[in-house]
């Protein structure tokens, strides 16, 4: 029996069976992390649901509906339309160039009146789907040939360039890093990464000249935050002060002085982990990181169990993207890396970021539901 490329060779699951097979353990972990976010946003507003916590709760509720819808759709749909979704996300990035909304010195959003859409967030998921489909169609020998890596490299390069123009260096680097992990998981030889890494290091002096002044300041501030304590170094110095003042167990809920006296900037978004560490101390910070670690372990375990290459790569890609979010944000507020403006998933206030994360978890649950499904590589495959 001949089947179309990408279609499944397994009995169809009914809607009831799919709902029964949803990974509710993962959902509870995601809900728990969101609960922490609600508590911290409530605290950030000095004990008020407005303006952040109430909207965060509504967005999570909408995100749950989207997550379940994504999880229950047949996995062949995501396989078939992966390139179309990528193309749509790329068009949205181009639209930002033409008619994007400028905010905080950057042009990253599209104003939909009721919602500020950030296409770079959508691209994080779209690129995972597109790369997963591309590498799914290749065998191990093909992946070893450089000629077969030109197309996926262009697929990564196009959105990275567009995002750099916004400018959004942090998201661009995260997109490139997440894609590199997918290349490795797909079977690209290690020596190619060594060569690419050496080339990237060699190009740093050239790339430096293309950075905006504020980006250069961020790097210099990372190297010496005290050179401009009231200017470019203010954010990270206040973050370190707040985290240090929290001690082992913290100052107590809604009792953080640095955050509630407005010394800590962007406490509801980029620096929300700092506020948590000030109020709940080292114990609270480690507890949140343990919760994140459980979500990551769940994600990688789901991906490993999948029988098809497409499902495995989607699961790995989504979990890697989530992990990069967490690592970069926490490392940033600790001063381990320069400030790049990456939100803490499920905790920070932000509409598009929440939607993207929930779509990602929907895809992860989709992989779990369809974990035993085999997907053929070519038109003549029997699965």
Walkthrough of the structure:
This protein has 383 residues and is an all-alpha fold. It has one domain (17-369). The protein has 17 helices and 3 strands. A 3-stranded antiparallel beta sheet has the order 1-2-3, covered by helices on one side. It is globular and about 60 Å long.
Overall mean pLDDT stands at: 86
Task: Indicate the overall shape.
Answer: globular
Main sheet summary = 3 strands, antiparallel
What count of helical segments does DSSP give? 17
Number of strands: 3
* Low-pLDDT segments: 1-9, 379-383
Strand arrangement in the largest pleated sheet = 1-2-3
- How many domains, as an integer? 1
Helix content: 55-70%
User: Based on helices, strands and strand pairing, what is the structural class?
Assistant: mainly alpha
Gap between N and C termini: 10 Å
CA gyration radius, whole angstroms: 21 Å
In N-to-C order, the SSE pattern is: HHHHHEEEHHHHHHHHHHHH
Structure at a glance:
With 383 residues, the protein is mainly alpha-helical. It has helices spanning 15-21, 24-44, 53-72, 75-80, 82-99, 119-136, 140-143, 150-164, 169-186, 190-202, 204-208, 213-223, 234-245, 257-260, 272-305, 309-334, 351-369, and strands at 101-103, 106-111, 116-117.
């Amino acid at each position: 029996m001949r089947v179309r490329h990408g279609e499944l060779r397994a009995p169809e699951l009914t809607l009831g069976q799919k709902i029964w097979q949803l990974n509710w353990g993962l959902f509870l972990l995601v809900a728990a992390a969101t609960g922490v976010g609600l508590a911290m946003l409530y605290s950030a507003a000095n004990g008020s649901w407005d303006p952040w916590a109430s909207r965060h709760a509504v967005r999570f509720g909408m995100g749950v509906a989207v997550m379940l819808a994504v999880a229950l759709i047949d996995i062949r749909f995501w396989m078939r339309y992966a390139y179309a979704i990528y193309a749509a996300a790329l068009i949205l990035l181009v639209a930002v160039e033409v008619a994007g909304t400028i905010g905080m010195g950057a042009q990253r959003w599209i104003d939909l009146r009721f919602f500020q859409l950030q296409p770079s967030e959508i691209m994080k998921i779209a690129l995972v789907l597109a790369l997963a489909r591309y590498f799914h169609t290749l065998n191990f020998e093909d992946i070893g040939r450089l000629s077969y890596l030109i197309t996926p490299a262009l697929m990564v390069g196009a959105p990275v360039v567009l995002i750099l123009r916004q400018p959004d260096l942090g998201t661009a680097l995260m997109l490139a890093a997440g894609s590199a992990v997918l290349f490795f998981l797909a079977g690209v030889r290690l020596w190619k990464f060594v060569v690419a890494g050496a080339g990237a290091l060699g190009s740093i002096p050239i790339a430096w000249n293309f950075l905006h002044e504020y980006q250069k300041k961020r790097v210099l501030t990372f190297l010496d935050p005290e050179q401009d304590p009231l200017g470019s170094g203010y954010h990270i110095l206040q973050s370190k002060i707040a985290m240090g003042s929290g001690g082992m167990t913290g100052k107590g809920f809604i009792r953080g002085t640095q955050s509630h006296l407005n010394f800590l900037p962007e406490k509801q978004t980029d620096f929300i982990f700092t506020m948590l560490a000030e109020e709940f101390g080292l114990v609270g910070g480690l507890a949140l990181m343990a919760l994140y670690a459980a979500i990551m372990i769940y994600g990688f375990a789901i991906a490993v169990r999948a029988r098809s290459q497409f499902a495995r790569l989607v699961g790995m890609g989504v979990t890697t993207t989530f992990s990069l979010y967490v690592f970069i944000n926490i490392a940033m507020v600790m001063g381990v890396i320069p400030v790049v403006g990456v939100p803490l998933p499920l905790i920070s206030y932000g509409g598009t970021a929440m939607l993207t994360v929930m779509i990602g978890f929907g895809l992860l649950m989709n992989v779990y539901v369809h974990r035993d499904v085999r997907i053929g590589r070519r038109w003549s495959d029997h699965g």
